[in-house]
């Protein structure tokens, strides 16, 4: 597997020369300053590629080429945004960048309630606490009908917690949920979120799936013509949030996507952290079955705290948590060997250490939540060791 690393561009305080020292081969990045729906111009792509190459690495994956809310809601502008997305693909392909990650999560991208939860080791980690999330939904956002979306005991605990919330607690929770996480392309306030939720009032899972289908039908032929590989990122967390449908949460969801428009260009990002927050996702087996459609790996481990769907979880060490990471890597190595034996050109699937806990100097550096230098380096180093061991062939005597 090709070892890659997410870089948030020149604003990222983990720099390219530092990333190189971590032994990284390829960079995963995006042109974050371009609003969803707009075209990525070729000269901007080239300039970014050159900065990465000057630092001794290559731009291997785009994460993400954003899918606009107009596309997700099937608004009139969707057709024009399809065309823009395809133009961006053409511009990326012309610069040699062929693997494109995107997601189809309505409104919110990945979501956590706590960005620095203390761990027993002294590290801090990202955490999703269902009671805190319900407290936000029920008593800060005050979403109509929200009470029906949580088990009764969660509602009772959320009420009790909300009664003790100070203004600062409410502000922190709101910030963490709506504006705290890197990579999400839009930032929400309570008012803009409420306005946006009304646009989804009549969009259930089936309707959202129809919009995703329309999107892949429009863009996959272009990607195929350009020799590109699209890979949809699963939902994080993998269940509906704020009454919004989420349709990339389970093996059946991912399977639906790859079979709705069968093409080598229509694949998935296998994110063990996102999928791993549901006990019914058996990751190593899913990886085996979805193998031929995987174009990108995110390796990360979550610890489910109550095993519920929805439930609470936190981001554990890469070889801690609820996922058997060695079994996952074994399946990934088997997929690599299978592709090599088939003569597939795309056998060297890019992987990145997804997220990391804040450890050592990370506590002082203030890098993007989930993306510290040293916590991720530890994850990459551990994953690299395991991958080398699993691929090792003893010399024949
Ligand atoms: C978080 C990420 C997400 C992901 C996008 C992909 O670390 O996994 O931000 O990049 O959802 O489109």
Class of secondary structure makeup:
alpha/beta
Overall structural domain count: 2
Q: What's the CATH class label of the largest domain?
A: Alpha Beta
Shape: globular
Task: Indicate the proportion of strand residues.
Answer: 5-15%
CA radius of gyration is 20 Å
Number-wise, the strands total 12
Q: What is the helix/strand order?
A: EHEHEHHEEEHHHHHEHEHHEEEHEHH
Termini gap: 27 Å
Q: Enumerate the distinct ligands.
A: D-mannose
> How are strands sequenced across the largest beta sheet?
1-2-3-4-7-8-9-12
Which residues sit in consecutive blocks of at least 5 with pLDDT less than 50?
none
Q: Given the structure, what is the number of helices?
A: 15
**CATH topology of the largest domain, which one?**
TIM Barrel
In the CATH hierarchy, the architecture of the largest domain is: Alpha-Beta Barrel
CATH superfamily of the largest domain: Divalent-metal-dependent TIM barrel enzymes
- Percent of residues in helices: 40-55%
Largest sheet: 8 strands, parallel, barrel
Q: On the 0-100 scale, what is the average pLDDT?
A: 96
Could you characterize what this model shows?
This protein has 397 residues and is an alpha/beta fold. The chain is 43% helix and 14% strand. The protein folds into two domains: 298 residues, Divalent-metal-dependent TIM barrel enzymes (TIM Barrel, Alpha-Beta Barrel), CATH 3.20.20; 79 residues, no CATH class. It has an eight-stranded parallel beta barrel, surrounded by four helices. Helix 12 runs parallel beside helix 13 and helix 13 packs across helix 15. The longest helix has 21 residues. The two termini are 27 Å apart. D-mannose binds next to strand 4.
